[in-house]
């Protein structure tokens, strides 16, 4: 689709997109970074990648071994 548009049309679309983006509320990284860190630390106990999955609830546990004779 972009190949069918002229350079002027592409630039106009880019300007329109930038006008939309400039309206987005911004937050300081010093504030949001702290909030993200606190959230991650609070949820770390529920993260199966950090604490592991109990063997009885692991859907990927091997059901049986392979026997070569």
From TrEMBL:
Q: Where in the cell is it found?
A: Cell membrane
Task: Identify the Gene3D superfamilies for this entry.
Answer: Transducin (heterotrimeric G protein), gamma chain
Q: Name one GO molecular function term.
A: G-protein beta-subunit binding
One GO term under biological process is: G protein-coupled receptor signaling pathway
GO cellular component terms given for this protein? heterotrimeric G-protein complex
Keyword annotations for this protein, in alphabetical order, are: Cell membrane, Lipoprotein, Membrane, Methylation, Prenylation, Transducer
- Coiled coil (residue ranges): none
- What job does this protein perform? Guanine nucleotide-binding proteins (G proteins) are involved as a modulator or transducer in various transmembrane signaling systems. The beta and gamma chains are required for the GTPase activity, for replacement of GDP by GTP, and for G protein-effector interaction.
Q: Which family does it belong to?
A: Belongs to the G protein gamma family.
Name of the featured protein:
Guanine nucleotide-binding protein subunit gamma
